[in-house]
Amino acid sequence: MMPGLSLDLHEGADRNAMADTMDVMTAAFDPVFGEAWTLPQLAGVMIMPGTWLTVARLDASPLGFALVRSVLDECELLLLAVAPLWRGRGIGETLLRDSLRTARRRGITSMNLEVRATNNAIQLYEKIGFEYVHRRPGYYRGSDGQLYDALSFRIDMGI
Ligand SMILES: CC(C)(COP(=O)(O)OP(=O)(O)OC[C@H]1O[C@@H](n2cnc3c(N)ncnc32)[C@H](O)[C@@H]1OP(=O)(O)O)[C@@H](O)C(=O)NCCC(=O)NCCS
């Protein structure tokens, strides 16, 4: 893990954590794909039981986050993002591995995710051991009207 990086787990309507997350969100997602969430969308999910947010910070500055929602023994990686200037240093991988550890601690046995078929994040998911499940043609619509397929991936963690 990068020296000095802290990973903080947040649950519920934590305003500071959500503000930090929105800072990264705004910088991290290309507006062309319309994938960034708004603060009300984030707040709506944060108050649901079984949701947790992990924020990576360096000297209190947020650099990345992972958002996971769980139901019983399954969970879904809803969002994973690292601020552009901080990419390629292992922060995304650290956040994802930490989310999997948190899931395991909670007795969760699998994590699912859905990603645009043209997203480089797929290489991270495959590196960690996620397996391709299926393709949804034209699932995402970019701001230019172009349609992009979604791929779903899953990792089974056993018990
Ligand atoms: C995906 C994302 C979170 C990766 O964060 P990151 O901190 O740069 O990733 P890491 O440095 O931890 O990369 C770990 C591994 O992932 C893969 N990877 C990450 N980014 C990659 C890229 N752009 N191209 C190819 N492989 C990549 C590599 O295998 C890398 O391992 P390596 O360094 O040993 O080669 C970041 O690019 C991002 O925020 N993207 C925009 C938001 C997004 O689309 N999120 C995913 C959908 S919610």
UniProtKB/TrEMBL annotation:
SUPFAM superfamilies to which the protein is assigned, alphabetical: Acyl-CoA N-acyltransferases (Nat)
Keywords for this protein: Acyltransferase, Transferase
CDD domains: NAT_SF
Assigned EC number: 2.3.1.-
One Gene Ontology term of the molecular function aspect: acyltransferase activity
Protein name, UniProt field: GNAT family N-acetyltransferase
Entry keyword Acyltransferase: yes
EC top class, as a word: transferase
InterPro entries linked: Acyl_CoA_acyltransferase, GNAT_dom, YpeA/RimI_acetyltransf
PANTHER family: ACETYLTRANSFERASE, ACETYLTRANSFERASE YPEA
